[in-house]
């Protein structure tokens, strides 16, 4: 009987802590960020290397890993379809990209942005287009950085939940934990 009472008390205490957490912070997990990116990612860009080539790039299938491979950072992986026009004629390639960024909360917009975006790794198919992609990489990196500086990775929806409304009104920053972004509320 004593063990049952202790178990019930422990469950009640855990419930209270979880309830308090909702009043002190708003937590977003990787799946919520991934869902938002799938619905709102619109990266599509025409990139030119003057006198060499033009490339149309469409970024798809973005997935985040929060604070796992590098503390305080978000790593995105995704695919890109690339249509290239050059002196060699039209070609197309598929890329697998890995990007790294610093998540930042913009209280005024109620949004999380991925700043200082950097293309850290990629592979290209067919491999014969590796040299062409090497020439495009600096332009692609600059374009991705500009895009994610302006386009949020997540926007709080105060109509969705009370804790999202509290986060938008009372947020005092952003903490990166393994697998989650935490928006603590101000006092």
UniProtKB/TrEMBL annotation:
Residues 1-18 form the signal peptide. It comes from the Bacteria. The gene is yceB. Pfam families: DUF1439 (PF07273). Gene3D superfamilies: Uncharacterised protein PF07273, DUF1439. Keywords: Lipoprotein, Signal. This is Uncharacterized lipoprotein YceB.
């Amino acid at each position: 009987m004593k063990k049952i009472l202790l178990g019930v008390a422990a469950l009640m205490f855990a419930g209270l802590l979880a309830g308090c957490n909702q009043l002190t912070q708003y937590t977003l997990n990787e799946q919520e960020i991934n869902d938002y990116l799938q619905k709102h990612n619109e990266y599509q860009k025409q990139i030119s290397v003057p006198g060499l080539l033009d490339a149309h790039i469409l970024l798809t299938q973005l997935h985040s890993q929060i604070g796992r491979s590098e503390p305080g950072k978000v790593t995105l992986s995704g695919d890109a379809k690339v249509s290239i026009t050059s002196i060699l004629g039209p070609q197309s390639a598929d890329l697998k990209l890995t990007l790294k960024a610093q998540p930042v909360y913009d209280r005024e917009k109620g949004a999380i942005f991925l700043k200082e975006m950097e293309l850290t790794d990629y592979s290209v198919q067919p491999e014969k287009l590796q040299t062409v992609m090497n020439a495009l990489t600096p332009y692609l990196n600059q374009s991705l950085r500009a895009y994610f500086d302006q386009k949020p990775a997540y926007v709080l929806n105060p109509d969705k939940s009370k804790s999202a409304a509290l986060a938008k009104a009372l947020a005092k920053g952003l903490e990166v934990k393994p697998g989650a972004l935490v928006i603590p509320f101000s006092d």
